[in-house]
Amino acid sequence: MLNESPEPKDTGTMSTNAAQTTGNGEQEDSHLIRVLLADDHALVREGTRRLLEAESDVVVVAEAASGEEAVAAAEHLHPDIAIVDIAMPGMGGIEATRKIKALCPETAVVILSAYDDEPYLMALLEAGAAGFLLKNVHGQELINAIHAVSRGESVLQPSLAEKVMRRMSFRASPAQRSTDLLSDREFDVLRLAARGLPNKEIARRMGLSIRTIHSHLANIFTKMKVGSRTEAVLLALRQGMISLQDTYDS
What we know:
- By secondary structure, this protein is α/β, with parallel strands linked by helices.
- 45% of the residues lie in helices and 14% in strands.
- A 6-stranded mixed beta sheet has the order 1-5-4-6-7-8, with helices on both faces. Strands 2-3 form a two-stranded antiparallel sheet.
- 38% of the residues are buried.
């Protein structure tokens, strides 16, 4: 049964515009990360909720016990991130991901899977998933993934990312950059992001602040109507905006 959480109350100790300090001492804006949990096991949802809400910048806005409930909750609440179990009664994770992305392109879908079969995972990414984690990950790995996706970084295994990008590049339209879609600076950020570089390294190479890189990534996602770096890069490859060569770091 769908369990929608009330909006968090302002306690005076947590701000949706709080500053988060990076490893180099630079501060960057953070916001309250709104998460939807979809898993048919109530105990798993309860444990995951407790884990995530121990973080000051994460709130679980709803829980769902099926793919259908997950889609309905996403359409109603438009969460920042949906954590979706791949094996649920009724609608499975692939179809739920596809429907969530059609209704809420700005929502990033992170799959929790007990399977690491490559064709299966590639189908999930083609459906619009931002990435996936195996169910045997430690709690801190899930937290790190949530924060990475929120920053616009990837949570995709590099070897799988390369295979998916190769597949997308073979399907690409004739290379033709949509100059009216992204600014020159945004296009440069996208190309560096396609190489799998973290935001801190992109900022260093471009001589910009991490906050500015965040802003550019947010604009890229909005203009391309996606919710994650993974989707942006795959869409850019599919549309011929970037080439496979752009994904290699020289």
